[in-house]
Amino acid sequence: MRSSLRAPRGVPALALALVLGAVTMPAGTAAEETPAPLAETAPSGFAAVAALGRNGTTGGAGGPTVTATTTEQFLEYIDTTGPLVIRVQGTIDITSKQGVRPDKTIVGVGSSAVINGGGLDFYRSSNVIVRNLRFTNAEDDAVNVGQESHHIWIDHNEFVAPVDGAVDIVRGSQYVTVSWNWFNKTDKSMLLGHSDANSGQDTGKLKVSIHHNFFDGSRQRHPRVRFGEPVHVYNNYYRGNAVYGVASTMNAGVLVEANYFDAVPHPCYSASGYDESGPGRLVQRDNIFAGAGTGACETNGTVTEPRTYYAYTLDRAADVPSLVRAGAGVGKIGT
């Protein structure tokens, strides 16, 4: 099915109030006339694709619901075998990266659920949903999807000050969607493929959809990609990204579509590679490049169309800043 463009999505006030509750805005952003989009109840993009024995990503659906208010409870629940919906309430302090078993939904309650000091790690895990959490001060990665994990949905979170990556997707992982997150002045925002030497494990994998994220003063890796194809980057709002927007390297195939780049000196790298990594392939279409200092998007070669895997509908690039500022981050979904 061919992709199409659509106008901004208005939501009736009563329906919005019932489903989302009070709408909050990322701190420091102006109020928008566009209402917050109705939050998805299931993923779109690669996390929704039936593959590898999974019929999309359903998380802990069908399992019991528990609430974690302490570190001890949280660590016990994410290490439980079988489906489980884990509601996170308040601040959970952890260290390092803590493993998450398959078939989990981890969702923050309201707008004040925090994972502080550490991060979540996926090692041969699958069918996990992570939503509505503020990740702060992770001493390594905030979310690491690794070692052939698949069907992971990372949605409506906020990432603040991780020491390393906000979201890394590496070591043969695939069927991942990263949507409606606020990367709040992060440095290394998102890495797909950890090493130039890992072509054997990563080639043909790292299938990732990245949409409606707010890359807000974040510096680089939005994403940086090695080997993965297709990586579909669409309807994201890039604002003031000092180093670069998207980098396709090591023969990765990245489609950059209907995004809004505002004051981004280097929106895309591909033909020239990046750092010590060789060139990748990148196709750009229907993007807007605006704001002082914004450069051109470097393109190279052809990329497998995501529509060979899933159908999708685009918002217009001109509407992306207001839509994403209104809808990205925590406190925007019913919990």
From TrEMBL:
Pfam families assigned to the protein according to its UniProt record, in alphabetical order: Pectate_lyase_4
Location in the cell: Secreted
Signal peptide: 1-30
Domain Pectate lyase: from-to ranges: 61-267
Keywords: Carbohydrate metabolism, Lyase, Polysaccharide degradation, Secreted, Signal
Molecular function per GO: pectate lyase activity
BP GO annotations: polysaccharide catabolic process
A single Gene Ontology CC term: extracellular region
SMART domains the UniProt entry points to: Amb_all (SM00656), PbH1 (SM00710)
PANTHER family, alphabetized: PECTATE LYASE 18-RELATED (PTHR31683), PECTATE LYASE 21-RELATED (PTHR31683:SF18)
Family: Belongs to the polysaccharide lyase 1 family.
Protein name: Pectate lyase
Source organism: Streptomyces regalis
